[in-house]
Amino acid sequence: MDISFTNKTAIVTGGGSGIGETVSLELAASGANVIVADMDTSGADKVVKTIRQKGGNAESFEIDVTDASACEAMVAFAIKTYGGLHLAVNNAGIGGPAAPIGEYPVDGWEKVISVNLNGVFNCVRYQIPAMLEAGGGAIVNMASILGTVGFANSSAYTAAKHGVVGMTKAAALEYAARNIRINAVGPGFIDTPLLSANLDQAALDGLASLHPVGRIGTPEEVSALTCFLLSDRASFINGSYHRVDGAYTAQ
Length: 251
Ligand code: NAI
What we know:
Blueprint: E1 9-13, H1 18-29, E2 33-38, H2 41-53, E3 57-62, H3 68-82, E4 87-90, H4 106-134, E5 137-142, H5 155-175, E6 180-187, H6 193-196, H7 201-209, H8 219-230, E7 241-244
Parallel strand pairs: 1-2, 1-4, 2-3, 4-5, 5-6, 6-7
């Protein structure tokens, strides 16, 4: 059974780059109307253009997920444009400073928590009422392997991603009986601008060697899991956290 999202509308935050870009393209190719939401409007516009060139439906939306009222407006835009909201991938995220916690920049901590944790809450907070209105829905929150294990010099990111996993479980309990499924995805290190913009080749090779498969992952490998979890094929999968990490966390 192929996955189909025909007549479904999806929001993808951070949809203008990396994993979010690939998820947006895959959702649209499977029939969804996609709101490509990002603070980088040129990235989002480029993804929308690609989707439309392939015959799909998409609109870009400028968003800073740290702004709760902007997240409310994003959901209202999806409803106004396509008539309802059924799917969401809360994926916008940043890396943040690298430092041990005893030296961690306080403003850096606040920024990472604000985007990677509070930003996911701000989105889910307004997506849920819209999905209840639509009769149900499915949400994937983009966590990380650092939602289950630690990583030195990344305390803020690790704390935020553990928080996303916990929030996902609580939210799923609250809405499981009302036909909304909420899951989290935990990628290992993935080849996206988040990594390549910040690390040289030697550092990337070092990260690859941490994965038993001997390489980092691709956005397509994360998107495949994400789209499966959003689909009706995953109808009994709810409140859980799924790694896509080349056996990183099996060690
Ligand atoms: P990326 O940097 O390629 O894309 C992230 C997108 O989020 C960018 O387009 C950026 O403009 C947007 N964004 C950042 N802050 C935002 C904000 N406040 N409001 C709205 N949009 C904002 O990154 P990538 O790698 O695709 O990451 C996507 C998600 O996957 C993030 O949550 C990241 O933590 C997570 N992840 C990434 C991994 C990796 O190795 N690349 C590994 C595990 C998780």
